[in-house]
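Need residues for this backbone.
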């Protein structure tokens, strides 16, 4: 398969090796650790596969405990905590080479009538008129580095920043800890709602900590900080498709003590709030020699 969206669907298609035990692939890529969104998305697939499929997930809470090793399979063990009249609860432990690297609790809820209200979506330009990430890098550097081109070919999401990227210290001055992007899968993801939910869970970890970085360094280019997701929480408010455009608005209310907190809101084109996200991440300065031009 050459389509990155198809590869994402395949990555989320876990192998069932026992009633409540699943195994997920971990691509052998040139990364120091497994991407956290991959582990979260796969864990949510495992949780969802142990339900009757009639109740969509409404929230998840997770902790990243150890870095996962790329190229090594991950086993997901599911505990059926509760099957109630309206709610279903599952707990998932991700294990790699005998060590727990991640745990997740997910709650599923039957749809029911209730009040309808939300704060409005920010007034931002639509995605069609915005440059792609590759276009922004090419415009800044005059060319697209091969390392970035390889990453772009593997990337399952089209990403378009609402505001022009800042590349210099001068441009960073006075920047608020906020960021916003339009995103969608680069190809169809099928019609299984669980796949779309898990694909968006994958995407939600891709750049939420961008909001912490905005005031201190360019989002793409040499990295001056060691960043890693520590925990992750999501609330799913309405049905959605991850292969249609969604706006991912992020802000960081605080960064201190080597950690940064980020909040995200995900909207569809109609302005409906689909998902709320909160994450805390490690945020430590790297010694100058350890900075890497991997960005994002």
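Answer:
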């Amino acid at each position: 398969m050459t389509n990155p969206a198809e590869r994402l669907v395949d990555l989320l298609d876990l192998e069932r090796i026992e009633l409540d035990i699943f195994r997920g692939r971990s691509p052998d890529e040139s990364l120091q650790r497994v991407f956290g969104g991959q582990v979260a998305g796969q864990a949510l697939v495992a949780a969802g596969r142990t339900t009757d499929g009639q109740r969509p997930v409404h929230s998840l809470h997770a902790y990243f405990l150890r870095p996962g090793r790329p190229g090594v399979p991950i086993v997901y063990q599911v505990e059926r905590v509760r099957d109630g009249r309206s709610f279903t609860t599952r707990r998932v432990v991700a294990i790699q080479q005998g060590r727990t690297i991640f745990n997740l609790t997910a709650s599923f809820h039957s749809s029911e009538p209730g009040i309808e209200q939300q704060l409005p979506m920010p007034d931002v330009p639509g995605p069609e008129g915005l440059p792609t990430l590759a276009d922004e890098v090419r415009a800044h550097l005059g060319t697209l580095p091969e390392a970035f081109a390889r990453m772009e070919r593997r990337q399952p999401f089209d990403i378009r920043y609402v505001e022009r990227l800042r590349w210099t210290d001068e441009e960073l001055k006075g920047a608020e800890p906020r960021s916003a992007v339009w995103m969608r899968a680069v190809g169809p993801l099928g019609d299984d709602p669980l796949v779309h939910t898990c694909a968006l869970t994958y995407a939600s970890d891709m750049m939420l900590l961008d909001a912490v970085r905005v005031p201190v360094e360019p989002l793409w280019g040499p990295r001056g900080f060691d960043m890693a997701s520590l925990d992750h929480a999501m609330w799913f408010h309405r049905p959605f498709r991850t292969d249609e455009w969604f706006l991912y608005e992020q802000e960081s209310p605080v960064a201190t003590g080597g950690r940064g907190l980020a909040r995200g809101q995900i909207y569809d084109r109609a302005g409906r709030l689909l998902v709320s996200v909160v994450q805390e991440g490690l945020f430590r300065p790297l010694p100058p020699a350890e900075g890497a031009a991997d960005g994002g």
